[in-house]
C-alpha cells in the first residue's frame, strides 16, 4: 500500500495536480487510485476522526477546480472538512491581473452514508468580497482514508487525491 501511495503522489506531482496530464499518466493514476480504494483501511470514512482536517489537493480530473478556462490558481489548494459541524471549505489563491487574491468556497455537508455526503455550496469569498452561492450542490464519496491520504470521487465522475 505504501509503495502505491508513493507512486500515486509522484505521478500527481509530475502531472501538476492534473494541469498537464498525459493520457498515459491519467490512466496510470486512475489505476493506482482504484487499487488503493480496494485497500481502504477505513471503512466508515465520514465517521472517522481522520477525515476532519485541512487537506491539500495533489491531483484531480476536475477542470473547474484546476482553473481551466478561468482564473489561474497559484499555490496550494486546500479543503477543510469538519464533519462534526457539517462544514467544508475549499480555499486557494487565484491570479487576477497579476495580483494574488485569496478565494474560498464555504459549504454545508449532509452525510447520506458512512462514506458519502451531499455538499451544498453556501458562500463564495474572493479577496474582501463575499456573496451567497447560487443553488449549487454536489456529492463526495470518500473511498480511501488513512493518516495522510484521502481519495475522493465526485458526483460528476471526477477523482481527487489529497494529503494532510
Automatic annotation (TrEMBL):
<dbReference type="Pfam" id="PF04755">
    <property type="entry name" value="PAP_fibrillin"/>
</dbReference>
<dbReference type="InterPro" id="IPR006843">
    <property type="entry name" value="PAP/fibrillin_dom"/>
</dbReference>
<dbReference type="InterPro" id="IPR039633">
    <property type="entry name" value="PAP"/>
</dbReference>
<dbReference type="GO" id="GO:0009536">
    <property type="term" value="C:plastid"/>
</dbReference>
<protein>
    <recommendedName>
        <fullName>Plastid lipid-associated protein/fibrillin conserved domain-containing protein</fullName>
    </recommendedName>
</protein>
<keyword id="KW-0934">Plastid</keyword>
<feature type="domain" description="Plastid lipid-associated protein/fibrillin conserved">
    <location>
        <begin position="3"/>
        <end position="128"/>
    </location>
</feature>
Amino acid at each position: 500500500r505504501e509503495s502505491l501511495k508513493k507512486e500515486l503522489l509522484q505521478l500527481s506531482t509530475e502531472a501538476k495536480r492534473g494541469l498537464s496530464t498525459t493520457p498515459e499518466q491519467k490512466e496510470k493514476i486512475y489505476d493506482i487510485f482504484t487499487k488503493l480504494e480496494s485497500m481502504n483501511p477505513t471503512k466508515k470514512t465520514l465517521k472517522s476522526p481522520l477525515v476532519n482536517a485541512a487537506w491539500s489537493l495533489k491531483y484531480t480530473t476536475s477542470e473547474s477546480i484546476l482553473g481551466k478556462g478561468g482564473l489561474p490558481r497559484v499555490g496550494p489548494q486546500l479543503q477543510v472538512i469538519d464533519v462534526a459541524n457539517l462544514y467544508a471549505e475549499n480555499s486557494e489563491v487565484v491570479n487576477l491581473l497579476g495580483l494574488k487574491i485569496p478565494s474560498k468556497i464555504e459549504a454545508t455537508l449532509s452525510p447520506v452514508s458512512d462514506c458519502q455526503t451531499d455538499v451544498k455550496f453556501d458562500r463564495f469569498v474572493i479577496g474582501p468580497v463575499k456573496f451567497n452561492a447560487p443553488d449549487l450542490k454536489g456529492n463526495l464519496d470518500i473511498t480511501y482514508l488513512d493518516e495522510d491520504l484521502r481519495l475522493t470521487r465526485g458526483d460528476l465522475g471526477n477523482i481527487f487525491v489529497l494529503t494532510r
